[in-house]
Design brief:
The complex is a heterodimer of chains A (about 160) and B (about 425). Chain A is α+β, with helices and mostly antiparallel strands. Chain A contains 6 helices and 4 strands, in the order H-H-E-E-E-H-H-H-E-H. Chain A has one domain: Alpha-Beta Complex (Sufe protein. Chain: A), CATH 3.90.1010. Chain A is about 40% helix and about 20% strand. The longest helix of chain A is centred in the last third of the chain and has 16 residues. Chain B is of the alpha/beta class and about 425 residues long. Helix content of chain B is about 40%, strand content about 15%. Chain B has 15 helices and 17 strands. A 7-stranded mixed beta sheet of chain B has the order 4-10-9-8-7-5-6, with helices on both faces. Chain B has a 4-stranded antiparallel beta sheet with strand order 13-14-17-16, with helices on one face. Chain B is globular and about 70 Å long. The N terminus of chain B is likely disordered. Classes of the chains: A alpha+beta (about 160), B alpha/beta (about 425). Chains A and B meet through loops of A and helix 13 of B.
């Protein structure tokens, strides 16, 4: 049985109630919108890239506890990381919340999201900000969406 | 083998449902629904997502099963015994739907996949036969996506104009604004009988009267009404009415469209195929008579037979008895939920069916949904396929409790305790 406290861990609750880097980044070099039509979560992610490095990152928006905490921890994790490192973390995070990866030591704060894989209906909440990050890095102008699952993904649930 | 099957079926038979004259005995009714008696996350299931789909009494499951065990054949085709039995059973359900809706004629009942397909059928055929660029279709701000998107497709492809009648803060149609939208270019009004999010019961007779005064036909989406209200299409005088089996305690995959004869005759076929034709040659095809003109291909025969059993079931139970019990639950539920500080109910129409949408300050509906699920309480969270309505009330989503006659006051108490728990955890 999926454990509710495994989903709503203290760190997640803390970040959802007091999200970090929750502001408009005036000197952002790139920004992207993320929207989860299923639950109405919306966020804007702001990134300042200096060369290949994320020198600052912030977000604004409204969403559930999981998506807000995920965006908050994403900004903390990625500040100072390079583009390549950020893209690698996207893959790691995606594998973590879809249960393809067990909680590991080197995940840092991201490990608190390991419980999400027990709640298939909530995976998209956790990944919204990460999909938005991908858009920012790719320079996409269309809003990022978590609605990228195909029939194979649905069947695998 | 046949004997074993018969005994098994007989052995599982429940006493017949209570008749209308008897007092409503919810515990007895609940015994007709095996699915309700299970644990979810270690807690007894409280199913409060009936507006998404309702649960099925055993008589419905048995009716569909019996069809596949004993009578399975295609309809309207074979001369053999099984085909005749299947055809007879299938057509008997058409008669039941006719009685349920009080439709004047049997051929005015078309079987389709459900309400969505019915709305698409009218949009498509009415669009092809009647609508010209610049013609207007009026809907309301409380429509389900299935009564918005088919008209938008026509707007984008044929240049019709879609007009949306506004609603007030209680979730009621704004009458003067609605009337003012009806004009010389209005060709159709398409409106929900009951809102799936707000529970609002629309004043259909007045809506139809105002439209008919200007010779405008009215299509009614009855998906959320059929499980709660007796429907009389002659008294409403609407031109089309549609509902889905799965919301009225029948199987998924079938629904019905009622249309006045003159409209069904005037409209072209929706899909081409078998059963909808009288004769085919490569030069010319003659379409079948009503309602078969609109029923191309092999339908969902088993589900339709299950729908027949569902109609028998609710008819025996009596809409009046169901409504009395649901109304008690609705007022009790609203009263108990409003005791929770920070909780706001969206949709407070004076005429309301048993739906309660709510938001809790500081807690996203999705989190409420997950925590309630862990307490065994199933509700719907999100935009409920009515995104424009979410914008109207300026909320990203709501939590929605939708009640059926098999729900109890104890279940409302479980719901309230679970929402309190969510507040404790996340508030």
């Amino acid at each position: 049985m999926a454990d509710l406290t495994g989903l709503y861990q203290e760190v997640i609750l803390d970040h959802s109630k007091r999200p970090r880097n929750f502001r408009v980044l005036d000197d952002a070099t790139a920004r992207a919108e993320g929207y989860n039509p299923l639950c109405g979560d919306r966020l804007t992610l702001y990134v300042r890239l200096e060369g290949d490095k994320i020198s600052d990152i912030a977000f604004k928006g409204s969403g559930c506890a999981i998506s807000t905490a995920s965006a908050s921890i994403l900004t903390e994790t990625l500040k100072g990381k390079t583009r390549v490192e950020a893209e690698a973390l996207f893959e790691t995070f995606h594998d973590l919340v879809t249960g393809k990866l067990g909680a590991r030591d080197n995940l840092g704060k991201l490990a608190v999201f390991s419980g999400v894989s027990e709640f298939p209906a909530r995976v998209k909440c956790a990944t919204l900000s990460w999909h938005t990050l991908k858009s920012v890095l790719a320079g996409d102008t269309a809003p990022a969406t978590t609605e990228t699952e195909d029939a194979e993904d649905q069947a695998a649930r | 083998m046949a004997t074993a099957v018969t005994q098994e079926v007989l052995g599982r038979m429940e006493p017949p449902p209570v008749n209308a004259a008897q007092a409503f005995d919810v515990e007895r009714v609940r015994r007709d629904f095996p699915i309700l008696h299970q644990q979810v996350h270690g807690k007894p299931l409280v199913y409060l997502d009936n507006a998404a789909t309702s649960q099925k009494p055993l008589v419905v499951v048995d009716a569909e099963r019996d069809f596949y065990l004993h009578d399975c054949a295609n309809i309207h085709r074979g001369v053999h015994e099984l085909s005749e039995r299947a055809t007879h059973k299938y057509e008997e359900v058409r008669r039941k739907v006719q009685h349920l809706l009080n439709a004047p004629d049997l051929h005015e009942i078309v079987f389709l996949r459900g309400t969505t397909e019915a709305l698409n059928l009218v949009a498509n055929t009415f669009g092809r036969r009647v609508l010209k660029p610049g013609d207007e279709v009026v809907i309301t701000a409380m429509e389900h996506h299935s009564n918005i998107v088919p008209w938008q497709i026509l707007r984008d492809e044929q240049g019709i104009v879609l007009k949306v009648a506004p609603i007030n803060d209680a979730g009621e149609l704004m009458w003067d604004e609605y009337q003012n939208l009806l004009g010389p270019r209005t060709r159709l009004v398409s409106v929900a009988h009951v809102s799936n999010v707000l529970g609002t019961i629309n004043p259909l007779r007045r809506i139809v009267e105002a439209a008919h005064a200007q010779n405008i036909p009215v299509l009614v989406d009855g998906a959320q009404a059929a499980p709660h209200l007796p429907i009389d299409v002659q008294s409403i005088d609407c031109d089309f009415y549609t509902f889905s089996s799965h919301k009225i305690f029948g199987p998924t995959g079938v629904g019905a469209l009622y249309g006045k004869t003159r409209w069904l005759e005037a409209l072209p076929p929706y899909q081409g195929g078998g059963d909808m034709i009288r004769s085919v040659s490569f030069e010319k095809t003659i379409y079948n008579a009503l309602p078969y003109k609109f029923e191309a291909g092999t339908p969902n025969i088993g589900a339709t037979i299950g729908l027949g059993a569902a109609i028998d079931y609710v008819t025996a139970l009596g809409y009046e008895n169901m409504a009395r019990h649901e109304h008690d639950l609705l007022s009790y539920g609203a009263e108990r939920l409003l005791e929770i500080p920070g909780l706001r109910i969206i949709g407070t129409a004076r005429e309301k069916a048993s739906v309660i949408s709510f938001v809790v300050a500081g807690i996203h509906p999705h989190d409420i949904g997950t925590i309630l699920d862990h307490e065994g309480v199933a509700i719907r969270t999100g935009h409920h396929c009515a995104e424009p309505l979410m914008h109207r009330f300026n909320v990203p989503a709501t939590a929605r409790v939708s009640l059926a006659f098999y729900n109890t006051r104890e279940e409302i108490d479980r719901l309230v305790a679970a929402v309190e728990k969510a507040k404790g955890l996340l508030g």
